[in-house]
Amino acid sequence: MSNRSPTHTPDYFHQPSKARGLIVIMFCVVITLEYSTPPPYVFGYLYIGAVLLADSRLSRANRIQVTAIAISLTMLNLVIPGVEPINFATLINRLIAVIALVVTSWLSDRNRQFEQAIAQQQLKLQTQEHLNHVREDFASTLTHDLRTPLLGAIETLKAFQQGKFGTVTATQRRVLEIMARSHQASLQLVETLLDVYRNDTEGLKLQRKPVDLRTLADEAAAMLTELAAARRVHLRLRCGESDFRQSFWVNGDVLQLRRVFVNLLENGINHSLRGGKVEIVITHTDTSHVVKVIDSGRGITSDELPLLFERFYQGHGDRQTKGSGLGLYLTRQIVEAHGGTIWAENGSSQGAVFGFCLPALVPAASAS
Fold first, then answer.
1. Closest by alpha carbon to 294, among 217, 229, 185, 225?
2. What number of H helices and E strands is found in the chain?
3. Residue 127: pLDDT above 50?
4. What pLDDT digit, counting tens, does each position of 208-228 carry?
5. Which one, 86, 125, 143, 327, has least CB within 10 Å?
């Protein structure tokens, strides 16, 4: 947008009629100086003010006209009033003044084009930002409104399963279990959407305290035992090269970090082949703890690797199962909010590795 703000420039400059009047006055002053002095005295440079004013307040055609008139008057002074003969030095001075007028006009035109392009780009960005806010507000409101009927439907299904509306046959019980799982999955998706939008707009608020990553890994594995069994995937947890119990303390939010383990484990289970395994490997360095979730799937294509943790990215390779594209994005949000890093890579032989690194809690703090 133009830097010529109306708060710093008198209003009459912004009116074309006022600007034309001011340009005429400028021309009269310069013409008086030019034609009342000998040709060696060059005042044509002063026409630059009129050219700049025409460019900023009038149309491009008007600026070209003003520039052409200024050039003509500058050169015409060589022969009018004709009181002195024309010499080479005088001609060169006049030509230099003409070149200055042409260059000024051209640069002014380019600057105006740049300003217009910047203004258009800023308008596009503002419009896009507004659309993004509207879209996110709509999605946030919609998911919030969906949560209530889903909770009601889940409670109703539980009541049916408990026989509060009459005897439930074995066939009906199986149908009710399928419906309950479907509603739970929908509720989980809605809550994930709410969390993503809330984190994007308000930031992730953490309730930090000392927490053991090994304990969280055990809890997450227990929560996904049924899913792993249904897909015939074996879960294993190990601490580096040792199977002995070790602790890996960090200063973090228990609920959020447990969600990280659940998301990565669920991702590994969904993409592992039947009869395969998913390993959680936890190691440590002097300053951090590293967690890797290793699956036995088909691996990740090279073009997918940079996009796995982007919002709504679902991928197009053989690994990807149908999903919302939000689980890994939310996982990245949580890890980065804890001051950690997250990444994905292909395994040494097959499958994929999803890992994250968190700052280790100093011994004195963990002991307290």
1. 217
2. 10, 7
3. yes
4. 999 999 999 999 999 889 889
5. 125
pTM of the model: 0.56
CA atoms within 13 A on the CB side of 209: 4
Q: 143, 172, 203: which is the final residue of a domain?
A: 203
Residue with tokens 């007028």: 101
300/152 same-domain check: no
DSSP string, 150-196: HHHHHHHHHHHHTTTTS---HHHHHHHHHHHHHHHHHHHHHHHHHHH
Same-domain pairing of 143 and 278: no
Domain match, 58 and 132 both:
yes
What is the Cα–Cα distance from 295 to 88, expressed in whole angstroms?
86
User: Residue 244: which domain range?
Assistant: 208-367
CB atoms within 10 A of CB 59: 11
Instruction: Assess contact for 257 and 207: CB atoms under 8 A.
Output: no
Beta bridge partners of residue 358, listed in sequence order: 289
Give the per-residue pLDDT at 320.
44
Total count of residues recorded for the chain: 368
Query: What is the rounded distance in angstroms from the CA atom of residue 228 to the CA atom of residue 208?
Result: 30
Strands 352-359 vs 341-346: parallel, antiparallel or unpaired: antiparallel
Q: In terms of DSSP bridges, do strands 249-253 and 277-284 run parallel, antiparallel, or are they unpaired?
A: unpaired
- Domain count of the fold of the chain: 2
Which pLDDT tens digit goes with each residue over 90-105?
Answer: 888 889 888 988 888 8
- Cα–Cα distance for residue pair 325/309, rounded to 1 Å: 8
Residue indicated by tokens 């197009």: 316
Q: Taking the C-alpha atoms of 25, 28, 29 and 34 in order, what is their torsion angle to the nearest 10 degrees?
A: 160
Same-domain status, 323 and 182: no
264-285: burial string, b at 16+ Cβ within 10 Å, e else: bbbbbbbbbeeebbbbbbbbbe
> Which pLDDT tens digit goes with each residue over 19-48?
888 888 888 888 888 888 887 888 888 888
Q: Which of 268, 314, 275 is nearest to 292 (CA)?
A: 268
* Long-range Cβ contact pairs of 86-93 (< 8 A, separation 24 or more): 86/39, 89/40, 90/39, 90/40, 93/40, 93/42
* Contact (Cβ atoms closer than 8 angstroms) between residue 331 and residue 256: no
What whole-number distance in Å separates Cα of residue 260 and Cα of residue 312?
Answer: 17
Is residue 103 located within the same domain as residue 27? yes
